[in-house]
Design a protein that fits this description.
Layout lengths: L2 E4 L2 E4 L15 E3 L5 E3 L7 E6 L6 H14 L5 E7 L3 H11 L5 E4 L5 H5 L16 E5 L5 E6 L9 H6 L2
Parallel strand pairs: 5-6, 6-7
Antiparallel strand pairs: 1-2, 3-4, 5-8, 8-9
């Protein structure tokens, strides 16, 4: 369990993030067209998992915009933006913002991604949502970098995440 903060108040997550050097756990998430995506679909590409509580908050929206801008410069790299938002909300946001270099995936059905990856918030008003995390995987799904952002309202360290590619 990780202890993070929300507005300076301590909150907790369900477990620990996958360790650097280990294989990332498989997942099944929902795409904007309601089809299912799994980690194995991205084998052969480097993957940035940009994980956050909700697309409808300022910091979360900023992280999606920032990774969208940076993703256009990355070769053989997919940026997956993952939250518990409905796929319709994710699609609406990216469409309105003109964001085409990231792929939104939803964990709305059962929250299993958040549980397996140890990043589900377990208490506070955000209980059940994902904490703010960035995990970078190599072409074989091995974790190269992970960051549990200590204060949920803060942005991740984009430079450190991208430097790990």
């Amino acid at each position: 369990m990780a202890s993070i903060t929300l507005g300076g108040n301590a909150i907790n997550t369900s477990g620990s993030l996958p360790q650097v050097g280990t294989n990332a756990p498989e997942f099944k998430l929902i795409k904007s067209d309601l089809s299912v995506a799994s980690l194995s679909d991205y084998k052969g590409s480097r993957v940035v998992l940009n994980i956050f509580p909700s697309i409808d908050t300022g910091t979360c929206a900023t992280s999606v915009r920032t990774f969208n801008a940076k993703a256009s410069e990355l070769e053989n790299t997919k940026v997956l933006c993952i939250s518990r938002d409905l796929p319709f909300a994710q699609k609406r946001f990216c469409g309105a913002e003109g964001l085409e270099n990231v792929e939104n995936l939803s964990d709305f059905k059962d929250g299993s991604f958040g549980k397996v990856y140890g990043l589900e918030i377990t208490d506070s008003v955000l209980a059940g949502l994902h904490s703010r995390v960035v995990i970078v995987l190599d072409e074989n799904g091995v974790v190269k970098y992970s960051e549990q952002v200590p204060e949920i309202a803060d942005e991740p360290n984009y430079e450190a995440a991208l430097a790990s590619l």
